[in-house]
Amino acid sequence: MTGKIKIIIMMLGAVFACTAPFIHILYPKKHAQFTVYEKQLEQRELSTEEYHLKVENLKASEKFIGFTNIRKFWYAIGKPIAMFYFSLLLVYIYPFIILDKQIRWIVGVSAFLFLFISIYFMTWTLWHRQDFPKKLYYWAIGLVASVGTGISILINSYYIKRKKNLHAWLYFVIRDVKRKYISAEDKEQFVRDYNDQIEKLR
Asked: For the segment 111-145, what is each residue's pLDDT rounded down to a tens digit?
């Protein structure tokens, strides 16, 4: 039963994470009552003072966790929620599906970086104050930039390493295999077959 509950929770989490960036669409950009007040003002059913008072009261009632309305709240938090879920998913599965140690390390660091960014923006959305302190922004920018630079360096070094390994393998195939393991009468055929395979890769 516990296993089934976990699967159900994961499925619901996936559905919520995938739909979170689009939930804001369910809410109107502007409350319909604003249009009603505007028409009443045009038709002189409301005085200017009454109109402004009603609009301000409606704006106050529309506020949601520091945002002017719930649509803007979901617009702000939807993408971080999706990023948070898929970062957690990547953190959970990458050790099992990636065999290369260096690539696994790169993917792991990237997953935790995305996890940090998503938590940062979810916290910012739910923050009770108007905004984060500037120092926190600078620290976050510095951390993300440093980790991102490190990931880029690792990817570049991995590419160089793979290129060297490929060259070493090609040297082995071209030189050692041809010289040590292929008879003299088969060498010409080996070279032709090798060149044909190279042409196919282009």
From this structure: 999 999 999 999 988 887 667 888 888 898 899 99
SS3 string of 162-180? HHHHHHHHHHHHHHHHHHH
Roughly how many angstroms between the first and final C-alpha of the chain, as a whole number?
54
Q: Does 170 score more than 70 pLDDT?
A: no
- Measured in degrees and rounded to the nearest 5, phi and psi for residue 174 equal -70, -45
Phi, psi at 46, each rounded to 5°: -125, 145
Q: Which residues contact 16 (CB under 8 A, 6 or more apart)?
A: 81, 85
Cα radius of gyration (the chain): 30
Q: Long-range pairs for 93-102 at CB < 8 Å and ≥24 separation?
A: 102/154, 102/158, 102/161
Residues in the chain: 202
Q: Provide the 3-class DSSP secondary structure of residue 47.
A: coil
Contact predicate 125/76, CB 8 Å: yes
Give whole-number Cα distances, 180 to 4, 31, 43, 168, 175, in Å.
59, 81, 98, 16, 8
In the structure encoding, which two tokens stand for residue 35, read together?
Answer: 């249009």
Q: How far apart are CA 126 and CA 67, in angstroms?
A: 10
